Amino acid sequence: MRYLCASFFPLYMDKDKIIGFSLIALLAVVYFFYNQHEQKLYLEQKKVDSIAFAKAHPRSIVDSSKAATAISAATVTTPDSATEALRKTQPQSYFGQAHTITLENKKLALQFTSKGAYPVSASIKGYKTSSQKTLYLFNGAGNHLSATLPFDNGKSTADLYFVPVIRNEPNGDKTIVFTADLGAGKKVDITYTLPADDYMMACNIKLTGMPASSLPVDWQTLGLHTEKDFVNERQGAQVYYGDKNDKYDYFTIQNGEKTIQNEFAFNWVGFRKQYFSTVLISDEGFGKMDLTHKSNTEDTNIVAQTKANLQLPLKAGNNEQSATLRWYIGPNDYRTLQRYKIGTNNIGLDNMVPLGYGIMSFVKYINKYALIPIFYFLAGFISSYGIIIMLMTIFIRLILSFFTYKSYLSSAKMRVLKPELDELRAKIGDDQQKFSMEQMKLYKSAGVNPLGGCLPMVFQLPILLSMYYMFPSFIEFRQQHFLWCNDLSSYDSIFNFGFSIPAYGDHISLFTLLMTISSLFLAVYNRNMTPQDPNNPMMKYMPYIFPVILMGMFNKMAAALTFYYTFSNLLSIAQQFIIQKYFINEKAIHAQLQENKTKPATPSKWAQKLEEMQKMQQQRAKTPPRINKK
Length: 630
Description:
- The chain is of the alpha+beta class.
- The protein has three domains: about 35-80; about 80-355, Beta-galactosidase, Chain A, domain 5 (Distorted Sandwich), CATH 2.70.98; about 365-490 and about 560-615, no CATH class.
- Helix content is about 40%, strand content about 25%.
- The protein has helices at about 1-15, 15-55, 80-90, 230-235, 335-340, 365-380, 385-400, 400-415, 420-430, 430-445, 455-475, 510-530, 535-555, 560-580, 585-595, 605-620, and strands at about 60-65, 100-105, 110-115, 120-130, 135-140, 145, 165-170, 175-185, 185-195, 200-210, 215-225, 240, 250, 255-260, 265-270, 275-285, 290-295, 300-315, 315, 320-330, 340, 345, 495-500, 505-510.
- The strands form five sheets. Strands 7, 8, 9, 10, 12, 13, 15, 16, 19 and 20 form a ten-stranded antiparallel β-sheet that branches.
- About 30% of the residues are buried.
């Protein structure tokens, strides 16, 4: 017992150590209760601040689960010890709760998420879907614009929680500034400015304390189905990209996926749907581009998915680097897209309204410099777009009336000479080459140009092709009513089968049916007015087969286009009847041709060339083939 007491006696007698341990234990107990009290006060204050902020911004911040409901209170959970420990080692912007903030002007209503600081939804005012609902160009998850920061092994802004501040500018513009504090003097500010009455939004990205020369940017858009014909809408989805000098390129993919890399230095890249587009523009240009366009998504509400990996140059400042983008979200309106520039240069956004491409690219100049100015001139004082189409057709016919008259006059001359041609054919027999030469001699002596009837078609064909590209591309025809048609930009359906007929479709378009009937009637009328070649039976039936073939192709075309072709056919029939009845006298023409035969012929160079070719062919036919003897 004495030994035990002697062993513990020094510890028992060390009063300083006992007092020290006691004080430490007491401080630990006090700190524990104090920390619990302070955390309770902090959570209560944070709840009060959240309610106050929601009341101060009733239209700006909404619950992410209910995009249209304002926040009434913030839901906060007490972090566990592991999360709290992680928070102490990482920036505050790594943790938070995502909210949705709405920014509106006269043209757009945009919803941004505070996690990532980018718009997740864009509705375009003044337009409706084919089912008359709010028109969203994109909406929901899968739409983002993010940057890879030179911080924390390439942290993405999409993973940061930003603090939003909304400002109403004196000129009516609206600005929202998203700030993410990364600690240690590092910060990210993303500012969006929406003009009071425009589709073009400005975006500024500013990095503080993170020096870099360029910023990798990822952009993804899921274009939503908005039009009547989903198949046509998906087939028309395209990606465009161009520079500040109006040089551009594009690609279309109807079903599948395609990836390209930048082929030249460019300033803008855009995803185009049938009537709406979203475009990113950098005045300084993008350093690189990787584009992926996908249209084989199983979701029938999504037309296509576009991804772009871009390299955005940064401007160096005082411990700051910044980059500026412009973001167009709006309709493919030709005049609207045409006015956007970089400096004084038209950057060519209007090229996203396809007015002619491929081997038919030449017709876009007819549209730009002739038909579009006429269209907008008439639209300035006429509200019915169907009447505008009729007036444009009449105007074009009046311009081409001189050539049309020459064509009908040439056909009348050949009709007058038909009895003489029949005599030649009976005299010569089946020798087609000899008959062709004698026919040319007869035409030459009578002063008839056999190609004169082709002039109206030569001049009219580019106009027909121009209309083919212009009418389905012009958003002005979208959801415009005319007669029985509810939407001139899509097909008019008077009856739906409930099933699809191959090479025709699942409905009957009345304008297409009328176009076919009028084309067949015009073919019959022309056949009676034009001499036929009995040695070419295929040409005899082609005018009747061709309109029937086109009926299947045009059955799903825009009603504006099929109505134009229908009205054009009716005008052709009326014009031909009037010219034949009141302006062409076949007896006088016959007398003139007989008089021409007595005059010395002055053949044209083309007639001489044609005659020489016929003689060469006739000579080859008479010369027996050589046989090589070994």
